[in-house]
Write a structure and sequence with these properties.
single chain, about 350 residues, alpha+beta, Rossmann fold, Tumour Suppressor Smad4, 2 domains, 10-stranded mixed beta sheet
Length: about 350
């Protein structure tokens, strides 16, 4: 066979790979996400997956996970796993909106909001088992001024804290708490104009959040009843509150009942516009990452945006230490989360 014949054969098999999908799983790892050693995760991948079943790539700069995902999508890969926090997951999932490729998550960030909402274990070997199961849930996305989000986006106090946390070289929950306390001392509520399909109002708010999933991360629930595949966003407006209520509101976030606070207004929307008065550009949080945008935010839901690998085992049949990363004190016979 001549050289031209070999070229045609190679092109044929390249086409077939793209048409049928490359069955290898690609792991895109953010080496600076969270506090967990990524070498441990790499070793775990090699123990669970056979040689030739996987490919490991590391990100080198912001936006690199998006670029790598698009590249692998063009090569025909159908399983791409984000290893990192919500920012890394956002980049990978944003590249796959509307695509047949499936998104996996190995939670390795500071908050891991989307993974926690989907009940993906933070324990590495258990998260890898989820990838092997290939159970899929199609979830919605939100879109704000052309950028996708899958957990939450918003502006106000939480965005200010997110910016402070991102500027800090140290990661982890302790650093986030310090950033929160530091910003709370000097922060003052802002004035916005909010427009939905039902009303247009001027309001003063401590924060305004659009929630596709229920929590920011670390089990801090801003929208406890949010459903990630219902074609709606939960719009959360936290009104100014007295300092004497600060502790109560903080506890409500973690006890999953902030919706019972008299200072929180909740509404479910498909789209909305939010404009901050007095500034041309504002800082927002987008799946935990601070982003600067114009002061007018145009937000809408994208139903059925991406396919995500989720646990095949119901949450009430899984040990809590696998889901939340908590060391078990004792083992219950029914494995219920408590």
């Amino acid at each position: 066979m001549n050289a031209i014949g070999f070229v045609y054969i190679r092109k044929y098999f390249e086409f077939m790979d793209i048409a049928t999908g490359n069955t290898k799983t690609v792991f895109i790892i953010n080496p600076i996400a969270g506090t967990r050693q990524k070498e441990v995760i790499v070793d775990s991948i090699k123990q669970v997956f056979s040689e030739g079943e996987y490919e490991i790539l590391f990100t080198e700069y912001p936006g690199h996970a998006f670029e790598l995902t698009r590249q692998k999508l063009k090569e025909g890969f159908t399983n791409i796993v984000a290893v990192g926090g919500d920012g890394t997951v956002n980049e990978v999932a944003s590249a796959l909106v509307g695509e047949p490729c499936k998104v996996g998550i190995i939670p390795a960030g500071s908050g891991n909001g989307l993974a926690r909402h989907l009940r993906i274990p933070v324990q590495v070997s258990a998260a890898l088992a989820v990838i092997k199961q290939h159970k899929i849930q199609v979830i919605d996305a939100g879109k704000v001024n052309g950028r996708y989000f899958f957990c939450t986006c918003g502006t106000g106090f939480d965005a200010t804290v997110g910016k402070k946390f991102a500027d800090n070289a140290r990661r982890g929950m302790a650093s986030y708490v310090r950033a929160t306390i530091h910003q709370y001392i000097s922060y003052s509520p802002k004035t916005y104009v909010l427009k939905t399909s039902h009303k247009k109002v001027k309001l003063k708010a401590f924060l305004v959040t659009f929630a596709n999933s229920g929590q920011y991360g670390n089990n801090a629930y801003i929208a406890p009843n949010a459903i990630i595949d219902d074609g709606m966003l939960d719009l959360c407006v936290l009104r100014p509150f007295p300092k004497t209520s600060t502790l109560e509101i903080g506890l409500r976030l973690f006890f999953k009942n902030i919706d019972q606070s008299p200072y929180l207004e909740l509404m479910r929307v498909k789209k909305a516009t939010l404009k901050r008065r007095g500034k041309r550009k504002i800082t927002i949080h987008l799946d935990g990452e601070p982003v600067t945008m114009k002061n007018k935010l145009k937000v809408r839901v994208i139903p059925g945006a991406v396919q995500v690998m989720i646990p095949a085992v119901p949450r009430n049949k899984m040990p809590r230490f696998l889901i939340e990363g908590i060391r078990p004190i004792g083992i219950r016979t029914d494995w219920k989360v408590f």
